[in-house]
Amino acid sequence: MFFLTIVFLPLLGSLYSGFGGCFLGRRGSVFISTTSIFITLILTINMFYKVVFEDGSYCLRLMGWIHSGLFYCDWAFLFDPLTVVLLFIVTCISTLVHYYSSGYMLTDPHLIRFMSYLSLFTFFMLILITADNFIQMFVGWEGVGFCSFLLINFWFTRLQANKAAIKAMIINRISDFALILGLLTVFISFKSIEYASVFGALELIVGCSFSFLNFNFNILNTICVLFLIGAMGKSAQIFLHTWLPDAMEGPTPVSALIHAATMVTAGIFLIARCSPLFETSPMVLKLIIIIGSMTAFFAGTIGLTQNDLKKVIAYSTCSQLGYMFFACGLSNYNIGIYHLSTHAFFKALLFLSAGSVIHALDNEQDMRKMGGLRRLLPYTYIMFVIGSLSLMGFPFLTGFYSKDAILEIAFASHDHIGHFAYWLGTMAALCTAFYSTRLLYLTFLSKTNGYRQNILNAHDSSMPMAFPLAILAFGSIFIGYLWKDMFMGLGSDFWRNAIYIAPHNINLIDAEFLPTIFKLLPVICSVFGLVFAFLLYHFNLYAFYKLKISWLGVVLYNFLNRKWFFDKVYHELISQNILHISYFKTYKLIDRGIIEILGPYGLSITLSNFSSRLSKLHTGYIYNYSLLMLISFIVLMGFVLNCYSTLLISCSVLIFLLVLTSNSRD
């Protein structure tokens, strides 16, 4: 019962607050949903202690679900170190977001529906991370996608919210289709979908292949590639990332929950959970490194020129997810999860602080229309500084421990792909420091550039919005240091069997003996980016202005501001062409043309014309009927005597009469 309460209490809170909202009222609905998540957090801390400090992993089989031939799938829940870490992150961030929402959404008329959606979102994420098999995991996987659609489209009267929600759903459908194919391949190959059975039988499948379209494919490589595509869509990696910045159309608490603890972390969790599977495929691991490092760099460059407060933070999320991805590609899944855990705190802090700014300025999100807010919102300013410094990887804050460890291990891999990831990651760290400082300066330090009414009415956060920021600020400062040795310390057995790293892929010790310059370079780049951005915007250098208005500056700015033209390419070269083909070829030519002519429409027209012509033979004259009877008799005799010439002559006479009769009637 204790295990089930952790998973299903958020669902009960969602149902009670949603369907009973008309009886409970706004305060009652907020209390029920927030209390249910808080109790889940308390139980999760207890579970964390049991699993980590009492050396126990628990598996609970609830009931049978699907039994068909060799296919068995149960409702079962697994609680191991990987699960309890994600449980703690999800429930902690979700509790703070619920409490924050009670203040942020206070004046929204649909607060009850919003709180219900948040709890349902948390429930599906818990289903995903506690699943004991791939099918149950996929239920949670699809559930968080569905809830993200509801929350992004929460203000459904806004066209941009509709478009953003549909975009997120469609792009995730692309990756989810690949994940489904991967799950089917797993079942066909292993005859099971349970984690323990699949991972235990890996040695039997190594080297096996299957034939498709006369090509041979390695089974394990195929499964890993399909799982990788599924993770890329959910965790917004390059080529499948375009939904993430548009998801900012939802309320700010939704952005914090999606980016810090739920949807975007699902892809990282999938790769870490399937670490025994990925360790058998070095080719896919290298592909993960390339994709992750490219994502970290390109998202960092895009963040340099964005002007929307939330979109800058959204692209920083995309960049940090790239770090997590290539950490897993380097076979250091524990460090990838470590960065996921530390990132959750400072990213939630940044989004909720941004929510405080937006709330204070009457929903203004353009940084160019802010400025001078450090005196009006001093508490929010301090929280923003802590979150931004942690995001930059400033020494001895939370982000410093995990991000620098990833870059050191990338360089310590001693191959060209690892060095490729190191240099792109270092450049991404420089970009991160620059756009974080730019965000702070334009929002809080520059001269006031906002509307007079907004500035006069600006106020700092109320208690429900301020308290979560303080908790997250504590985590953004200390969590990285407190969890460092437990998550990635040499000799730590924290993860036990939850994560598997092949012995030849362990390079954590090598990272300790790197030349000092390569250890310090990411920190130097971060400090340089911070100082350079501050000086650039504080002194308003004329040379910087001339560079921006030059031909090269305009081209570069447009390239970055328009997000490397990913949206333009997808829209004009893919979406429009598909819609054009769908309308003019599939719909007009095939559906309305060939199929209707050869199908029911053409058949009905043919029968109708034949019937109308046949009815014209009923002239009412006896000599016409006598002639028809004679022709019919001759036709019948032709059939009996197999006289084909007689049949041909009779049919010709009959057709002639039909034509003659129709002309005479006309």
Topology:
Elements: H1 2-19, H2 21-53, E1 58-68, E2 71-79, H3 81-104, H4 111-130, H5 134-152, H6 159-190, H7 195-200, H8 202-205, E3 209-212, E4 215-218, H9 219-234, H10 243-246, H11 252-260, H12 265-273, H13 275-278, H14 282-303, H15 309-329, H16 333-360, H17 378-392, H18 398-412, H19 416-445, H20 452-457, H21 463-488, H22 508-511, H23 516-539, H24 542-549, H25 551-561, H26 566-598, H27 600-615, H28 622-641, H29 644-665
Antiparallel strand pairs: 1-2, 3-4
Helix pairs in contact: 1-2, 1-4, 2-3, 2-4, 3-4, 3-11, 3-16, 3-21, 4-5, 5-6, 6-9, 9-12, 11-16, 12-15, 12-16, 14-15, 14-19, 15-16, 15-18, 15-19, 16-17, 16-18, 16-21, 17-19, 17-21, 18-19, 18-21, 18-23, 19-23, 24-25, 26-27, 28-29
Q: Structural class given helices, strands, pairing?
A: mainly alpha
Largest sheet: 2 strands, antiparallel
How far apart the termini lie comes to: 86 Å
Determine the mean pLDDT: 86
Q: Proportion of β residues? A: under 5%
Compute the gyration radius: what is it? Answer: 32 Å
Helix content: over 70%
Q: Count of DSSP helices?
A: 29
List the uncertain runs: none
Strands across the major sheet, in which order? 1-2
Number of strands: 4
